[in-house]
Structures are given as C-alpha cells and as structure tokens.
Amino acid sequence: MKIVTYMRVSTDKQGRSGLGLEAQREAIRAYARTAHAVTISEYQEIESGRNNARPELEKALRAARVHGAKLVIAKLDRLSRNAAFLLKIQDSGADFTACDMPDASPFTVGIMAVLAQQESKMISDRTRAAMQAAKARGQSFGNPNGAAALRRAGRGNGASRQVASANADAFAHDLKDVLDHLESGGITSLSAIANTLNKRGIKTARGGQWYPTTVANLRNRIAANKGGQ
C-alpha cells in the first residue's frame, strides 16, 4: 500500500525545534509498519489553527489522488474545530486515515465539520451582536467606499465553465507538482515524461496511458491556467 503523510504544528518555534513533529512522524512510522505501507511523499505544515489556508495539505491531497495512495494524517483531533480543514479532507475524494483517530471516516469527519461550523456560527452571531451594539453607541466600522470599489473593479461571477473543462483543469492542477518534480530531475522531453508517468501507474484524466501528445496537452493546460491566475 502507498501512503502520503501530512503533519502539522501551530508555531514556527515548534517547527524549528521539531517539537510535536517527531511524535507525529513516529506515529506515522508505526502505522506504516503495521500496514506494510510505503511512504511516497511527506508534507508538513506550520500554520496557526485559526488560518484556513493549508497549502501543504492541498499538495498532500493532490499527491494522494494522483498516485492512488492513502493520505495518513498524524493528528486529526487538534484540528477538529477547523471546519475548512475537515471539509477539504471530506470532499477531496482521497482515501485517508488518522493515526490518533483511526476509526475516522468521511461520515464522522462530516459530523465534526458540522459541529465546527455550528461553533463558528455561534461565534459569528456573538460578534455581530456586539458590533450592532457598538453601532448603536455611534461607533462605525469598515470602508464606506468598499462596495463602490468592487463595482469599479468589475468583480463578480463570470460565465460558468463546462463540466469537462473544469474537470480537466482540476486534473492538470493535481499533476502540476508531479511534472515540476520530473522536470527538476532532468526528465523534460514529452516522451520521457509520458514513459515515467506510465511506469508510475499514473493514468490520464480519462484513465488511459500517456503519450507525448497527451503530455503536451497537459502542459498547455497548466500554462493556460497559470496565465489566467
């Protein structure tokens, strides 16, 4: 069995010292030994629990999907109040397990996310009530020109993409890290990349084999998406 691992600590100090990370890494090693698993990539994140951005988690989920591997999370309980984190895992489509909560499933993670969202709503409601009370006392908030600035910028929802195109974009996004890694290792020709992807058992978006033309199409889509960002 192939696994992709994800660990997280909440402070730079913990990251530099290894405090917390080593315990998580050992828990993952123990799981890998028991499951006779091979770790193909490891990701670790130093983020505040209040920060919903999880770039390393996104990379780990992409790697798990691309390689058909299981995502192994060292500690899930510390993040049980972060609805965004939990929903990313639930909606990712990747198989996963948590060393500290081995019985966790998409269903239980979904329940945890609902509870986290409810707690967030309660906090938001209390904050809104406090702001309304402050406004009643004459205190003002925000930029009065904010909405007008957005209108001048022309921001809004564009035309929706076709489902097939959106899926292809998502697949290209998942494979970008793999192509970057191959090219940094000197595998740059279309034929060499196609052969390497086939040897690794990575399928195309339609579940087929790679050819120089399909690699070229993938590169073009990645470049187009990058240019549109």
How is this structure best summarized?
With 229 residues, the chain is an alpha/beta fold. 57% of the residues lie in helices and 10% in strands. The protein has helices at 12-17, 21-35, 55-67, 83-91, 106-136, 146-153, 163-184, 190-199, 212-228, and strands spanning 2-9, 38-46, 70-73, 96-98.
Describe this structure in words.
With 229 residues, the protein is of the alpha/beta class. The protein has 9 helices and 4 strands. It folds into 2 domains: 2-111, Rossmann fold; 163-228. It has helices at 12-17, 21-35, 55-67, 83-91, 106-136, 146-153, 163-184, 190-199, 212-228; strands at residues 2-9, 38-46, 70-73, 96-98. The chain has a 4-stranded parallel β-sheet with strand order 2-1-3-4, sandwiched between helices. Strand 3, helix 4 (83-91) and strand 4 (96-98) form a beta-alpha-beta unit. The longest helix has 31 residues, at 106-136. Residues 13-19 have low confidence and may be disordered.
Which helices and strands appear, and what pairs or packs with what?
Blueprint: E1 2-9, H1 12-17, H2 21-35, E2 38-46, H3 55-67, E3 70-73, H4 83-91, E4 96-98, H5 106-136, H6 146-153, H7 163-184, H8 190-199, H9 212-228
Parallel strand pairs: 1-2, 1-3, 3-4
